Amino acid sequence: MGDTKWLNDDEMALWQAFLTAGALLDRRIEEQLKAESGLSHVQYEVLVRLSAAADGELRMSELAADVLTTKSGLTYQITQMEKAGLVRRRSCADDVRGVYAVLTDKGRARLEGAAPGHLRVVRANLIDVLSDSQVRVMKEGLEEVVRELGGA
Amino acid sequence: MGDTKWLNDDEMALWQAFLTAGALLDRRIEEQLKAESGLSHVQYEVLVRLSAAADGELRMSELAADVLTTKSGLTYQITQMEKAGLVRRRSCADDVRGVYAVLTDKGRARLEGAAPGHLRVVRANLIDVLSDSQVRVMKEGLEEVVRELGGA
DNA sequence: ACTCGATGGTTCGAATTTGAACAACAGGCG
DNA sequence: CGCCTGTTGTTCAAATTCGAACCATCGAGT
């Protein structure tokens, strides 16, 4: 035992491409979003989740899980967004500890303004670069990876 | 003009899975690496690049590009790694501005110690979750994305 | 009602990342 | 040679992230 099974060429190339694509794409998204809407990617995701939720509000913990950030990370971001008026905190009725993050009108407007530009970047650099069948296969594969990582 | 072409279900799912897989996988890698070898993922990548390079050394700028980080980000990390004795700085003969990051024996040893564990995580959560054909398709697709993003 | 092991959010300090500004130099070209 | 533009790597402050510690509360089980 203890002998390591290395990656073959395709596997290595996949891993490398996965890292590179992720990093470069994130960079581009971040800069586009910041320039065009003054939002960070995390903040954009927060707005997306909230706007998709019933009444435009979610518990901090659920939001943190959705946005793939840590609890403290979300606390920080929500504080920032609250200062910017994009979001508001509301304490939970049935659980004194609980806190809801609530989307404000301003927040919703900001999201609507940012979405098209963001989408353009995602399309231009990821979706439209792939064929329909590539999209399907990669979706299947990555969903399996997510499942494995317990992010189901 | 101005009307936005949204994503269909598969495209949306792919984008979501891509983000989630990336974030979760990075998290797991980071924690495994830190726990088992006291390295961050960036530092690990630095060691990998240096060990792959001739004489185990690379110019700062090239290394920064390889590792997908900014110039200042690399300066910081190399300083940390230098303190830890994993790396050493050497100034460039033919270009007074230039600086080489050089892998030390200790650095190489640390990499060798860390690699098997790191590889296990990559395998368990990405590679081994996919079929050979999925690996090939995803590799092709992601390489195309990287090309599009100018990371050729 | 009471205890005890989870849960929800925040707080804190340390580590890291970012981007702009900077200084020093390289390299081509008139 | 002298000028001009682009590089190289570092520095600095500000923004963000991380993780552990913390407090208050919940909820199941007794």
Short description:
The structure is a homodimer of 152-residue chains. Helices cover 66% and strands 9% of the residues of chain A.
Q: Would you mind describing this structure in some detail?
A:
Chains A, B: InterPro entries: HTH_MarR-typ (IPR000835), MarR/SlyA-like (IPR039422), WH-like_DNA-bd_sf (IPR036388), WH_DNA-bd_sf (IPR036390). 2 copies of one chain form a homodimer. Chain A is built from 6 helices and 3 strands; from the N terminus they run H-H-E-H-H-E-E-H-H. With 152 residues, chain A is mainly α. Chain A has one domain (14-148): Winged helix-like DNA-binding domain superfamily/Winged helix DNA-binding domain (Arc Repressor Mutant, subunit A, Orthogonal Bundle). A 3-stranded antiparallel beta sheet of chain A has the order 1-3-2. In chain A, strand 2 (87-91) and strand 3 form a beta hairpin. In chain A, helix 1 packs antiparallel against helix 5, helix 2 crosses helix 5 (105-125) and helix 3 (60-67) packs across helix 4 (71-83). The first copy, chain A, is globular and about 55 Å long. The two termini of chain A are 32 Å apart. The mean pLDDT of chain A is 96. The structure holds a DNA duplex (30 and 30 nucleotides).
| CATH structural class of chain A | Mainly Alpha
For the biggest β-sheet of chain A, the strand order reads: 1-3-2
Rg of chain A, alpha carbons: 19 Å
Task: Give the low-pLDDT segments of chain A.
Answer: none
CATH superfamily of chain A: Winged helix-like DNA-binding domain superfamily/Winged helix DNA-binding domain
Helix fraction of chain A by DSSP (H/I, runs of at least 4): 55-70%
Ends distance of chain A: 32 Å
Question: In the CATH classification, which architecture of chain A applies?
Answer: Orthogonal Bundle
How many strands of chain A? Answer: 3
Which H/E pattern describes the elements of chain A? HHEHHEEHH
Number of helices of chain A: 6
InterPro entries (chains A, B): HTH_MarR-typ, MarR/SlyA-like, WH-like_DNA-bd_sf, WH_DNA-bd_sf
Pfam families (chains A, B): MarR (PF01047)
Organism (chains A, B): Streptomyces lasiicapitis
Domain HTH marR-type (chains A, B): 11-147
